[in-house]
Amino acid sequence: MARIMEHPWNTLKQLSIPIWFFDIEKENIYVSERLKSQWKLDSTLLSCRDLLRLIHKDDLAYMDHQTMTKENRHFFYMNYRVVNAGKYEWMKDIVTPFFDEDGNILGYTGMSAPDSAYIEELGRIKKAIVEIGDAFLSYNGQEFFDFLVEYLSSVLGVETVLVGELTGEAKNEVTAISLSFKGRTSSGLRYALKNTPCEQVTRFHECYYPNDVGTLFPEDQTIKDFGVESYLGKALLNSDGEVIGILAIMDNRTQTSGPLSKALFQIFADRTANELSRMQAEKKLEILSQYDPLTGLVTRSYLSGILEDEIQSTAEKEHNMALLLIDIDNFKMLNDSWGHTKGDELLRQFSRYLRQTFAKHDAVISRISSDEFVVLLRHVQSIEELREICDHVIHSMRRPFLIGEKEFYNTVSIGVTFTQERHRDQYSGETLLRHADAAMHEAKRSGKNRYAVYEEKMSEQMREELHLKQSLHHALDKHQFELHYQSQVCGRTSQVIGYESLIRWNHPDYGLLSPQYFISLAEESGMIIEIGEWVLNEACQQAKRWQVEDRRTDLKISVNLSAQQFKDSNLSKKVLKALRDSKLPPDSLILEITETMVLQDFERSTDTLNGLREKGIKVHLDDFGVGFSSLSYLHRLPVDAIKIDRSFINQIGEQGKEVPIVNAIISMAKSLGLQVIAEGVETSKHMAYLKQKGCYEYQGYYFSKPVPASLVIN
């Protein structure tokens, strides 16, 4: 520090080195002869106006004596650009203040910094490159950004360093990924870009204000709150050249390390942008992984996290919650027969249906497997409310989905689990899903197109079902299946005219099982076609034995086709082969189908049925009245008879009332020229009523339960 009485320049101008002196009072700059020659000047005395022509406009702030006086009481380095032969050259000077006896600054002198200063600065840049490079290897994501802002704040000696990401729908705000302010690191600060230095960065990719930035941007509240005097910002660009973020340093002092800061920014901006791009890409992948690409619904893994959060949060919200696991019945058959393109379209339409259905509920909807959907209902008042919701879903599915200009009718099975707030600690998300799954399988076992509410016994049933699935694969090989036969009787003659063949599984652990326990499992496993072929062959052979042994060539045998069998493109060939192998006449075989099977692809169904009937095979429509009956389809359907479902026959005899549905089905069958058969005839009242209405063919316990072939009496 120099203390002098006379004007400093009187002494300094005698030196032979390039040197200058800035006189604060006169606002003049004196330059030595050596510097005059070097800069090709006309005079050794420069005014502020001369300075404007000589120094780069972005570097003039360094010559602001008020700022220099306020901030610099010791020597410092100053970087600036001087025009020479029409081009700017970077200069680096070491600047020293001069004081009078009272400690007031008279001015500053500057001379070219020694090579050691350049070497020192280059060393700092090199050191920073190495250390930041190591950080890229050691850290990623948030850890890297936190390290970066802390490091730059330290190496540049500035108060604030920001790595921000452009956010908002119009990318019109900045959100701090990491912010170092006065030695403390944080994130999440968010502010609008408009009328801020950051807005300039997004427009011009770089912005440098060495001082007085608050005056330049008076509407920037963050600048005011942080007491920012200087600002340097650099845009972070992605591979397409789009601005995705900002790297900025801010300080409460005039910046004198502009070149160093810019050098570091130039080096690190690209690397920082790469890390930000990678982080954004990971976020996008994470978001994509949370949603099913086909339907846009939440995935199972994301739902599991939501469930766990919801279970924890119920302690504060004090509400009941519920899960509905909704399975599309017979979806595999649709995919196999119509192809995956139409199957995918059904899934998309069903997803839209669920969104519309639960739009007014506080719900999360997820697709957890091919044809299984889960609806999380966050606020449920009671189990009665749940039942109403499920009833609505079941009944609203009666409308068809239009796929490729064809109507597709389907049903759903729903498993329900209801969790009261006071019992929340007993469950995990996976437990609730398992319970809903167990309830859904109970609905399947009970005939589909319905819902079931979870009970503890269902978990045991699920374990039994798993055991059945495993042993089902060996049941055919081990000859565990057998057929039982239920007689069909003519009401006019009281003679048996045929039998319906019904499969049973003689399981080694569970005994004799009816189809309701294993047919759905066979459909899920894909074994239903193989089992169905066995039933067809066995029934035809047994019918032929009866015809020969009892000399009853008029006896008929009925075989139920599964949905997957009916969609099998080789169905006709397999049926004809079974007839040839057994030598059973085609007109002795009756194939029973359901309305739902036919309506899923009406045109293809009619072609299949016409082909079978042309060979002399009879076709009966089973369980009539419980499906999606449509007269517009029925009169075009190539069938020989309809079977009235037992649920309607059971209504006969109750208090002597008429049964309008039974009456209507019989009347309709007659008008269409179809035979009509009543299932589930159990009492003489049933038979008397049916005879009165003109139905003369019956099947039910009144005549015989299904029995093995050895117990059949013709």
Automatic annotation (TrEMBL):
GGDEF domain location = 319-456
Q: Where is the EAL domain?
A: 465-714
Q: Which domain of life is it from?
A: Bacteria
Q: What protein does this entry describe?
A: GGDEF domain-containing protein
Q: Which organism is it from?
A: Halobacillus faecis
